[in-house]
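Issue: copy button drops trailing tokens. Both records pasted manually instead:
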Amino acid sequence: MEKEENWFTLQNADQLDTPALVVYPERVRRNLAQLTASIDDLARLRPHIKTHKSAEAVQLTLAAGIRKFKCATIAEAELLGQCLAPDVLLAYQPIGPKAHRFVELVQRYPHTTFSCLVDHYAAAEQLNALAAASGLHIAVFLDLNVGMNRTGIDPTAALALYQQCAALPHLHVLGLHAYDGHIHESDLAERTARCHTAFAPVEKLIEQLRATGLQPVVVVGGTPTYPIHAARTGVECSPGTFIYWDGGYGSAFTEQPFEPAALVLTRVISLPTPTTLCVDLGHKAVASESTLDKRVTFLNAPQLQPIGHSEEHLVLEAGPGHGFRVGDLLYGLPHHICPTVALHAQAYTIDNHLATGTWPTAARNRTLTI
């Protein structure tokens, strides 16, 4: 493996305008290999594509032997259909026009088995009516609220809803979905304890369902709780960020040996004061929902400290006698890669220190054709 300080550098960087998202396919392959080696059965993997939103990354995932996927938008689901992914869970409850779009998706890509989430009977009824009108049967998972308080039904109240949905003639209830994105402590023991506590009512619900003769498929977790759920038996795991990794997860979850595989490139465009420099990495090029010190770290200049950020500019404190010049290239590791990727229409691929091609971020759009 290349030395850590050397892996990201480009020999033909003058061919790329900045700001730019770059991806290192060989590192993506290694992250996928690490994922597949970390679980007892590849059929238990259902990675989320929200991080990359790219057909090329999907194809590498398929090549790694993974056949199940999760996504959050109709566009992401359609991208997976276009890639001939066998099994796709839309981890969202389609409401209003989105429900119509989901039914059209199922019709348009019959080679892919699509499913979606429900957590309310009215939404299930709408899906059932649309499926009936189209002569279809729609597969659904019951979405459980295990403490994130974003979507889902309390597991202790879910049995009745599960049975109600199962009675709808054009719905096929496959199982349960439980996303625990609120659990992200850096201490693995603490994270493990919270994960088990959150999953306990899900286990009780599974037992109740099995007592009625049902065998629910259970889809759980994201990247932070992946190693905990991977050690369970009989659940599918849905990590997403693992494929590109980022500064935030790399610092917080050191027990997971994934590698950064995507960066943002930026150039010094101004030297406004003797101790500061300005680069072209604004809000529109790197995720900015976190505090200023948790947006980007520069691999070839980790000493630089962000002090100001706006739409097209990032101002950095470099200190006296810093030596930076206008035009210098910086390699930025985003703190949060998923929304960063969504800011870029494409990622430039880097192989053997050379920019070689592009991966369109196709599913950053809200719609593809449906």
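Record 2 (pasted manually too):
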Amino acid sequence: MSAPHPSDSSAPDAPAAPTRRVRKAVVPAAGLGTRFLPATKATPKEMLPVVDKPAIQYVVEEAAAAGLDDVLMVTGRHKRAIEDHFDHAFELEQALATKGDTVRLDAVRDPARLASIHHIRQGDPLGLGHAVLCARRHVGDEPFAVLLGDDLIDQREALLSRMLDVRDGRGGSVVALMEVPPEQIHLYGCAAVEPTGEEDVVRVTGLVEKPAPHSAPSRYAVIGRYVLDPGVFGVLERIPPGRGGEIQLTDALQELAAGGTVHGVVFEGRRYDTGDKADYLRTVVRLTCERPDLGPEFTAWLREFVAGLDDARPARRDIAA
């Protein structure tokens, strides 16, 4: 299922009036990380390393690369490590400076230099919509981006920048969409869409949170990138809890979509899901293989290791017999 083509019967959207440029990002990071227990008993899941950086640093780097210089972390209890990571570590920095270890010194300083980082606690974990609502005072009446830490977008992709361009041209809110197999759509929010005059942009007419495959309106899943109009706060404030007894961002966007103010950017690039154990491990392997300093040696070892597995399988079958 490909993105609707501009030649479809729906007329292209008229360009919207220029809107205020987005400069703030919100990163919800209050989840308990239960799928990674016991590793996340005392360590935030967002701080689990992906090669040699915590997952959440990749997300903040993506926001900074798209020009968002103000980042609000919505955290919870036992998340102090996130705050510490994006702060200066003066004793460590001094020790590295004394040794003349400029490479590690820059690596330690980089997180604090990416953007102006702020923190607020969500308190009760009442869902993604509630986490976004917690950002209302900081965001004010400006449009803003939301980046979920479980979804890592490859640094070579320009998804967030493209979404910001669509918001600038069309106003309203913009969600990132990716086509997934029918048997996986129940894991995501799912969008009903109509074509626009741009090949990678659709108008979102409805949203359903984690539908059954037979009732899903499409195969377009909402992935963890949003550019939201501040009007979403008023909707989040008054909608009742939805699926799982939580305040769902999907439900608020469904109401906005009914008014014709939500668009989707169809993404076909490289995305890594670190919210699942197996996908997390695959992400680490992929990114390690692509690193010029680690990739050649690691890839050679990996080939040898996999070949060893293949050689061992017949012997294991013989033993079982």
